[in-house]
Amino acid sequence: MTGAPPPDDVIAAYGAAGEPVDLGGAWRVGPLVFKPVEFLPETLWRAEVLDALPGSSRFRIARPVRARDGAWVTRGWEACRFVPGEPDVRRPDDVLRAGAAFHEAVSGLERPAYLDLRDNPWSHGDHVAWEELPVRAGREALELLESLLRVRRPVEPTSQAVHGDLLGNVLFADGLPPAIIDWPVYWRPPSWAAAVAVADALCWYGASPALAARWSHLPEWGQMLVRALIYRIVTHDAGTWACEHVAAYRRAIGVVVSHTEVGHG
Hints:
By secondary structure, the protein is an alpha+beta fold. It has nine helices and twelve strands. The protein has helices at about 10-15, 40-50, 90-105, 120-130, 140-150, 190-205, 210-215, 220-235, 245-260; strands at about 20, 25-30, 30-35, 60, 65, 75, 75-80, 85, 160-165, 170, 180, 185-190.
Protein backbone atom coordinates (compact mmCIF):
# COMPACT_ATOMS: atom_id res chain seq x y z
CA MET A 1 0.00 0.00 0.00
CA THR A 2 1.28 3.42 -0.94
CA GLY A 3 1.69 5.89 1.91
CA ALA A 4 0.55 9.47 2.04
CA PRO A 5 2.09 12.03 -0.33
CA PRO A 6 4.56 14.63 0.91
CA PRO A 7 2.92 17.50 2.80
CA ASP A 8 2.55 20.84 1.06
CA ASP A 9 5.18 22.49 3.23
CA VAL A 10 7.72 19.79 2.34
CA ILE A 11 7.00 20.25 -1.35
CA ALA A 12 7.40 24.01 -0.97
CA ALA A 13 10.63 23.57 1.00
CA TYR A 14 12.22 22.06 -2.12
CA GLY A 15 10.87 24.76 -4.40
CA ALA A 16 8.34 22.52 -6.11
CA ALA A 17 4.64 23.07 -6.71
CA GLY A 18 1.77 20.99 -8.02
CA GLU A 19 -0.30 17.91 -7.30
CA PRO A 20 1.73 14.83 -6.24
CA VAL A 21 1.60 11.93 -8.69
CA ASP A 22 1.91 8.47 -7.14
CA LEU A 23 4.89 6.52 -8.52
CA GLY A 24 4.49 3.59 -6.13
CA GLY A 25 6.62 4.26 -3.07
CA ALA A 26 7.56 7.74 -4.30
CA TRP A 27 5.73 10.84 -5.48
CA ARG A 28 6.44 13.09 -8.46
CA VAL A 29 5.78 16.79 -8.13
CA GLY A 30 6.80 18.65 -11.28
CA PRO A 31 10.48 17.99 -11.97
CA LEU A 32 11.13 16.41 -8.57
CA VAL A 33 10.51 13.00 -6.99
CA PHE A 34 9.91 12.77 -3.24
CA LYS A 35 10.53 9.70 -1.08
CA PRO A 36 10.18 9.07 2.65
CA VAL A 37 13.56 8.62 4.31
CA GLU A 38 14.08 5.02 5.45
CA PHE A 39 17.47 5.29 7.17
CA LEU A 40 18.81 8.80 7.64
CA PRO A 41 22.57 8.05 7.67
CA GLU A 42 22.26 6.19 4.37
CA THR A 43 20.17 8.93 2.80
CA LEU A 44 22.69 11.62 3.75
CA TRP A 45 25.71 9.58 2.60
CA ARG A 46 24.07 8.67 -0.70
CA ALA A 47 23.01 12.24 -1.39
CA GLU A 48 26.54 13.55 -0.96
CA VAL A 49 27.95 10.82 -3.21
CA LEU A 50 25.42 11.22 -6.00
CA ASP A 51 25.59 15.01 -5.86
CA ALA A 52 29.35 14.87 -6.51
CA LEU A 53 29.31 12.00 -9.04
CA PRO A 54 30.47 13.14 -12.50
CA GLY A 55 28.08 12.72 -15.40
CA SER A 56 28.50 9.70 -17.67
CA SER A 57 27.56 8.74 -21.20
CA ARG A 58 26.97 5.18 -19.98
CA PHE A 59 24.32 5.81 -17.33
CA ARG A 60 22.17 8.51 -15.77
CA ILE A 61 21.37 9.06 -12.11
CA ALA A 62 18.54 10.74 -10.26
CA ARG A 63 20.43 13.70 -8.79
CA PRO A 64 19.50 14.54 -5.20
CA VAL A 65 18.07 17.99 -4.55
CA ARG A 66 18.64 20.16 -1.50
CA ALA A 67 15.81 22.00 0.16
CA ARG A 68 15.92 25.78 0.10
CA ASP A 69 17.65 25.79 3.48
CA GLY A 70 20.44 23.57 2.09
CA ALA A 71 19.34 20.36 3.84
CA TRP A 72 19.08 17.03 2.07
CA VAL A 73 16.14 15.98 4.26
CA THR A 74 13.06 17.91 5.35
CA ARG A 75 10.59 16.45 7.84
CA GLY A 76 11.54 12.91 6.91
CA TRP A 77 11.47 13.42 3.13
CA GLU A 78 14.21 13.46 0.52
CA ALA A 79 13.94 14.66 -3.08
CA CYS A 80 15.72 14.04 -6.36
CA ARG A 81 15.41 15.07 -10.00
CA PHE A 82 12.89 13.11 -12.04
CA VAL A 83 14.56 10.98 -14.71
CA PRO A 84 12.48 9.70 -17.62
CA GLY A 85 12.28 6.01 -18.35
CA GLU A 86 10.71 2.75 -17.27
CA PRO A 87 12.16 -0.44 -15.78
CA ASP A 88 12.26 -3.40 -18.13
CA VAL A 89 12.93 -6.76 -16.48
CA ARG A 90 13.08 -8.34 -19.95
CA ARG A 91 16.45 -6.65 -20.46
CA PRO A 92 18.60 -8.13 -17.67
CA ASP A 93 21.81 -8.00 -19.73
CA ASP A 94 21.35 -4.27 -20.30
CA VAL A 95 20.61 -3.85 -16.59
CA LEU A 96 23.86 -5.62 -15.71
CA ARG A 97 25.86 -3.53 -18.16
CA ALA A 98 24.44 -0.33 -16.68
CA GLY A 99 25.20 -1.62 -13.19
CA ALA A 100 28.79 -2.39 -14.18
CA ALA A 101 29.26 1.15 -15.47
CA PHE A 102 27.80 2.61 -12.29
CA HIS A 103 29.94 0.42 -10.06
CA GLU A 104 33.04 1.44 -11.97
CA ALA A 105 32.14 5.09 -11.35
CA VAL A 106 31.75 4.61 -7.57
CA SER A 107 34.60 2.15 -7.10
CA GLY A 108 36.82 4.63 -5.26
CA LEU A 109 34.43 5.31 -2.39
CA GLU A 110 35.33 4.41 1.17
CA ARG A 111 33.14 2.01 3.09
CA PRO A 112 30.34 3.98 4.80
CA ALA A 113 30.37 3.54 8.57
CA TYR A 114 26.57 3.47 8.80
CA LEU A 115 26.55 -0.05 7.33
CA ASP A 116 27.53 -1.28 10.79
CA LEU A 117 24.35 0.27 12.20
CA ARG A 118 21.75 -0.56 9.56
CA ASP A 119 19.35 -3.24 10.79
CA ASN A 120 16.57 -4.44 8.52
CA PRO A 121 15.58 -7.74 6.85
CA TRP A 122 17.75 -6.97 3.82
CA SER A 123 20.90 -6.24 5.78
CA HIS A 124 20.25 -9.34 7.89
CA GLY A 125 19.93 -11.51 4.79
CA ASP A 126 23.12 -10.01 3.41
CA HIS A 127 25.08 -10.80 6.59
CA VAL A 128 23.80 -14.38 6.63
CA ALA A 129 24.74 -14.86 2.99
CA TRP A 130 28.31 -13.78 3.73
CA GLU A 131 28.63 -15.94 6.87
CA GLU A 132 28.71 -12.91 9.14
CA LEU A 133 25.61 -14.14 10.98
CA PRO A 134 24.37 -17.69 11.59
CA VAL A 135 21.48 -19.14 9.63
CA ARG A 136 18.26 -18.97 11.62
CA ALA A 137 15.16 -19.40 9.50
CA GLY A 138 11.79 -21.04 9.23
CA ARG A 139 11.05 -24.42 7.72
CA GLU A 140 10.44 -23.23 4.15
CA ALA A 141 13.61 -21.18 4.07
CA LEU A 142 15.76 -23.89 5.64
CA GLU A 143 14.60 -26.43 3.06
CA LEU A 144 15.47 -24.04 0.25
CA LEU A 145 18.81 -23.09 1.78
CA GLU A 146 20.04 -26.64 2.30
CA SER A 147 21.59 -27.20 -1.13
CA LEU A 148 22.93 -23.63 -1.31
CA LEU A 149 24.71 -23.95 2.02
CA ARG A 150 26.17 -27.26 0.88
CA VAL A 151 27.93 -25.64 -2.11
CA ARG A 152 28.84 -22.35 -0.43
CA ARG A 153 32.57 -22.03 0.15
CA PRO A 154 34.87 -19.22 1.33
CA VAL A 155 35.88 -16.54 -1.14
CA GLU A 156 38.20 -13.57 -0.92
CA PRO A 157 36.53 -10.94 -3.07
CA THR A 158 37.29 -7.26 -3.44
CA SER A 159 34.35 -5.31 -2.06
CA GLN A 160 33.15 -1.79 -2.79
CA ALA A 161 29.93 0.21 -2.63
CA VAL A 162 27.39 -1.50 -4.88
CA HIS A 163 23.71 -1.29 -5.78
CA GLY A 164 21.93 -4.22 -4.16
CA ASP A 165 18.68 -4.18 -6.16
CA LEU A 166 19.44 -3.42 -9.80
CA LEU A 167 16.86 -5.31 -11.82
CA GLY A 168 13.83 -3.12 -11.12
CA ASN A 169 15.80 0.07 -10.56
CA VAL A 170 17.35 0.66 -13.96
CA LEU A 171 15.16 2.80 -16.22
CA PHE A 172 15.22 2.77 -20.01
CA ALA A 173 14.18 5.61 -22.30
CA ASP A 174 14.67 5.90 -26.05
CA GLY A 175 17.80 7.82 -26.97
CA LEU A 176 19.09 8.06 -23.39
CA PRO A 177 21.54 6.01 -21.33
CA PRO A 178 19.97 3.75 -18.68
CA ALA A 179 19.16 5.52 -15.41
CA ILE A 180 20.14 4.10 -12.01
CA ILE A 181 17.62 4.90 -9.26
CA ASP A 182 16.77 3.92 -5.65
CA TRP A 183 20.28 2.88 -4.61
CA PRO A 184 20.38 0.53 -1.58
CA VAL A 185 24.06 0.54 -0.66
CA TYR A 186 25.98 -2.63 0.15
CA TRP A 187 29.71 -3.21 0.59
CA ARG A 188 30.16 -6.28 -1.58
CA PRO A 189 31.81 -7.33 -4.86
CA PRO A 190 30.22 -5.88 -8.01
CA SER A 191 29.80 -9.46 -9.22
CA TRP A 192 27.51 -10.11 -6.23
CA ALA A 193 25.32 -7.16 -7.21
CA ALA A 194 25.10 -8.61 -10.72
CA ALA A 195 24.28 -12.02 -9.25
CA VAL A 196 21.37 -10.58 -7.24
CA ALA A 197 19.88 -9.18 -10.45
CA VAL A 198 20.35 -12.53 -12.21
CA ALA A 199 18.80 -14.42 -9.28
CA ASP A 200 15.79 -12.08 -9.35
CA ALA A 201 15.40 -12.58 -13.09
CA LEU A 202 15.56 -16.37 -12.70
CA CYS A 203 13.08 -16.42 -9.82
CA TRP A 204 10.44 -13.94 -10.89
CA TYR A 205 10.74 -13.01 -14.55
CA GLY A 206 11.23 -16.24 -16.45
CA ALA A 207 14.85 -15.70 -17.39
CA SER A 208 16.63 -18.57 -19.10
CA PRO A 209 19.53 -20.38 -17.39
CA ALA A 210 21.58 -19.01 -20.28
CA LEU A 211 21.50 -15.63 -18.53
CA ALA A 212 23.62 -17.02 -15.68
CA ALA A 213 25.99 -18.64 -18.17
CA ARG A 214 26.50 -15.38 -20.11
CA TRP A 215 27.92 -13.66 -17.03
CA SER A 216 30.09 -16.52 -15.79
CA HIS A 217 33.22 -14.50 -16.62
CA LEU A 218 32.60 -12.39 -13.51
CA PRO A 219 34.83 -13.13 -10.48
CA GLU A 220 33.71 -16.04 -8.27
CA TRP A 221 30.48 -16.12 -10.25
CA GLY A 222 29.10 -19.39 -8.90
CA GLN A 223 29.68 -18.32 -5.32
CA MET A 224 28.15 -14.91 -6.00
CA LEU A 225 24.99 -16.59 -7.30
CA VAL A 226 24.86 -18.82 -4.24
CA ARG A 227 25.16 -15.83 -1.92
CA ALA A 228 22.62 -13.84 -3.91
CA LEU A 229 19.99 -16.53 -3.45
CA ILE A 230 20.80 -17.03 0.23
CA TYR A 231 20.43 -13.28 0.68
CA ARG A 232 17.05 -13.19 -1.04
CA ILE A 233 15.68 -16.29 0.71
CA VAL A 234 16.71 -15.19 4.21
CA THR A 235 15.28 -11.73 3.58
CA HIS A 236 12.05 -13.22 2.24
CA ASP A 237 11.79 -15.35 5.39
CA ALA A 238 11.08 -12.18 7.37
CA GLY A 239 7.72 -12.09 5.57
CA THR A 240 5.30 -14.79 4.44
CA TRP A 241 5.66 -17.76 2.14
CA ALA A 242 3.34 -18.99 -0.59
CA CYS A 243 3.66 -22.06 -2.79
CA GLU A 244 4.61 -19.93 -5.77
CA HIS A 245 7.45 -18.33 -3.83
CA VAL A 246 8.94 -21.70 -2.92
CA ALA A 247 8.60 -22.95 -6.51
CA ALA A 248 10.28 -19.84 -7.90
CA TYR A 249 13.26 -20.17 -5.59
CA ARG A 250 13.55 -23.89 -6.31
CA ARG A 251 13.82 -23.22 -10.05
CA ALA A 252 16.59 -20.69 -9.50
CA ILE A 253 18.39 -22.90 -6.98
CA GLY A 254 18.48 -25.70 -9.54
CA VAL A 255 20.20 -23.41 -12.03
CA VAL A 256 22.64 -21.96 -9.51
CA VAL A 257 23.65 -25.23 -7.84
CA SER A 258 24.22 -26.99 -11.15
CA HIS A 259 26.16 -23.97 -12.39
CA THR A 260 28.33 -24.04 -9.29
CA GLU A 261 28.93 -27.78 -9.29
CA VAL A 262 30.18 -27.87 -12.88
CA GLY A 263 33.09 -25.65 -11.98
CA HIS A 264 32.11 -22.03 -12.32
CA GLY A 265 33.24 -21.08 -8.82
